[in-house]
Amino acid sequence: MTQPSYADYDVPQDLKFKTHDIIRMGGFNCSARLPAVQFADVLQAPNKITKATVDLSFCVANKEIIVNGTISGEREVECARCLKHVTQPFCETFCETYSTKLEIIDIMYVIRQTLALTEDIRFLCAPACKGLCAQCGHDLNEGPCGCKEENLSPFAVLKGKFK
For residue 22, what are the domain limits? Predict the structure, then answer.
């Protein structure tokens, strides 16, 4: 049996659902496109979320409401090696349980947590990104820069001293 959609009234923009409505409907499925400005502070600058959509499924049990959700979209990230900004898709799922005694279920809080916890420590535009020249800053993905290659090892001065 499929669950009804949230047709009684529009999906709240802030994603705060009234518990009594969820119970009255016996659970439901819904989807919403979310404004990117709601996530301006979720990722570390200069990375940012540019598009986001959430799909939710509410199920009512005895004394709890189970929410399964998927948030997907795109984020603009800066490559850790060459500093280019690239667009990267994302898709994350979550499952939360709420008491039926609550008046309001705030899904936006869970979405923000999910997105914050899934941020990579280091983004790369490509696994084989060559980065920037340490001397002139030229993007080595576009070709060599012509700088003389120096040994950047801090132990290079010790070479030949111990024989």
Answer: 16-127
Assess whether 141 and 114 both reside in one domain: no
Question: Does pLDDT of 40 surpass 90?
Answer: no
Both 147 and 100 in one domain: the answer is no
Q: Give the type of residue at 128.
A: A
Q: Judge whether 55 and 70 are in contact, CB under 8 Å.
A: yes
Cβ count near 121 (within 10 Å):
6
Determine whether 112 is exposed, middle or buried from the number of CB atoms within 10 Å of its CB (0-12, 13-18, 19+).
middle
Asked whether residue 65 falls in the same domain as residue 141, the answer is: no
Per residue in 105-161, pLDDT (tens digit) is 999 999 999 888 877 778 889 999 999 988 888 999 999 888 877 666 767 667 777
What is the spatial distance between Cα 130 and Cα 149, in angstroms, rounded to a whole number? Answer: 14
Based on the domain organization, do 134 and 89 belong to the same domain?
no
From CA 106, how far away is CA 129, in angstroms rounded? 40
**What contacts 69, CB < 8 A, 6 or more positions away?**
54, 55, 56, 57, 93, 94, 95, 96, 107, 110, 111
Ranking 15-29, 55-69, 141-155 by mean pLDDT, the lowest is 141-155
Shared domain check, 158 and 85: no
